[in-house]
Amino acid sequence: MMEKDKPLEEQYEQAKHEVIEAIAQTMDLYGVNHTFGTLYGVMYFEEKEMTLEEMQQKMNMSKSNMSYAIRSLLSSQMVTKLDKKQVRKDQYIAETDFFKVFQNFFGNKLQREIDVMSLAIDEAIGAWSSIILSPDASEELRSLCLQDMFKLQEAKAYYEWLQRFVNHLQDGTLFQLLPTDASESSGQPK
């Protein structure tokens, strides 16, 4: 850039830095490590694929921490590992469509919650049903099991509803119900 652009370039970099920091803070709210959020923000603004070494240089992180960060971003589908390699080095690119990031990130997190809670609820209801039917159980214990089973039936209804929500989120039909400017015509995020 030309010398006269120096103050404007600094202003540009400052604004970009603020957005990257906001991305990291926002991701931190959702349980993603702040540094991983910063890495995603850096990759978001890159115009090309990045290798781990390039990320290390931009982030000033160790290779092991960088590998851990990229694995975390890959598992939440915020970053994609490309099939092609550059001089035998893996290349990665950030998903820049926030609708897709939302779809992938929350779809995966909510599905995990549904799976864990549904299993626990089903196992508890099964165990309490056996206790209720047991001739050895006291009336007090049977009553307690029944009381808690009713609570879990309400929880089960919530998780069945949440599963439908996640299904709509993951298959894109949520975007037909709540269209975005980018998805109004297709029913899918861009």
From TrEMBL:
Q: What is the lineage of its organism?
A: Bacteria, Bacillati, Bacillota, Bacilli, Bacillales
Q: Which family does it belong to?
A: Belongs to the GbsR family.
**Alphabetical list of InterPro entries matching this protein:** HTH-GbsR_regulator, MJ1563, WH-like_DNA-bd_sf, WH_DNA-bd_sf
- Per the UniProt entry, the signal peptide is none
Q: What is this protein called?
A: HTH-type transcriptional regulator
Q: What GO molecular function annotations does the UniProt record carry, in alphabetical order? A: DNA binding
Q: Which UniProt keywords apply?
A: DNA-binding, Transcription, Transcription regulation
Q: Does the keyword Repeat apply?
A: no
